[in-house]
Amino acid sequence: MTTVFIIEIIGAAILFLKFIKIFDYKTAAYYAIFHSISAFCNAGFALFSNNLSDFKNSIIINTVIPVLIFLGGIGFAAILNIYQYFLKKDKRLTTTTRIAIKMSIFLIIFGTIITFILEYSNNKTLGTLPFFEKIGAAFFQSVTTRTAGFNTISIAELREPTVFLFVVLMFIGASPGSTGGGIKTTTAGLILFGIVTTIKNKEHLEYNKRRISWKIYNKAMVIVFISIMYVAVVLFLLIWLEDIRVIELGFELVSAFGTVGLSRDLTPQLSSISKLLIMITMFVGRVGPLTITLALSRMKNPKGRYVYPKEDILIG
């Protein structure tokens, strides 16, 4: 708790240096504290009518907010593990922490590069910005899209390939034990490791000189499958209820599932039933995957007195 408080205070202090140039002392302090907490908690709430679009040229905003989002998104267990590793030096970084950090960094870099390429010439988003500010805005949006929901560029003006990219990032979401939603970075990472292991025809699922149980991998697959099926079913209902393009509905739905909060200005157009489905999806996205994981981890298959004969089936 102390570590979290210190992180938020440091973030607020740096943000204050930016806001004090625009607002009076009390307002600057209030805005700094609010946005620091909002970023670390991956809430995505901003006290400005156009979110953080007016600060897309600010180095402080484009650096501090993403760092706070990253720290809040990797999970409290990971933060504690990192604290003990660097300051107390009495524990190693766990496999969960390593996967959460590396997957988060990979997704940030991947999202930044692809967003930069896709939106480079889009004058309604990155097109009018100088080269390095384009990179900064793409980086900011890549970080915040997975969990927090801040924006410095117009989400409604994004090109469709970028919209699809953001849907994927939002679906993956944050890391276990964090304030974000989605299937979680460790789940996605575990699926990738399993695919590589299967392609290499290895017997054991290994990472960082540790062997991971295939039972955990199977649970990760179940979480992904259930999440995809849930999103697919709700998307089908939204398509049935609304006369709106599928990609627009999909973005709104997955944004709710990942508890991100980004919108392409679609929410006001939805019917009451569709809004209810979106609200339920927010709850499922935040609680569902974690609850499913805990439930599966406690399920035990009682050993019977018999075992059926094994038989292989054709796949692929």
Mean pLDDT across residues: 90
Helical amount? 55-70%
Number of domains: 1
With strands numbered from the N-terminus, the spatial order across the biggest sheet is: 1-2
Counting H and I runs of at least 4 residues, what is the number of helices? 11
Radius of gyration: 21 Å
Distance between the termini: 49 Å
Morphology call: globular
What's the story with the biggest beta sheet?
Answer: 2 strands, antiparallel
Strand content: under 5%
Total beta strand runs: 2
Q: Which spans have pLDDT < 50 for at least 5 consecutive residues?
A: none
How are helices and strands ordered from N to C?
Answer: HHHHHHHHEEHHH
Coarse structural class: mainly alpha
Topology:
Layout: H1 2-19, H2 25-40, H3 59-73, H4 76-88, H5 95-119, H6 131-146, H7 160-172, H8 185-199, E1 205-207, E2 210-212, H9 214-241, H10 246-257, H11 272-298
Antiparallel strand pairs: 1-2
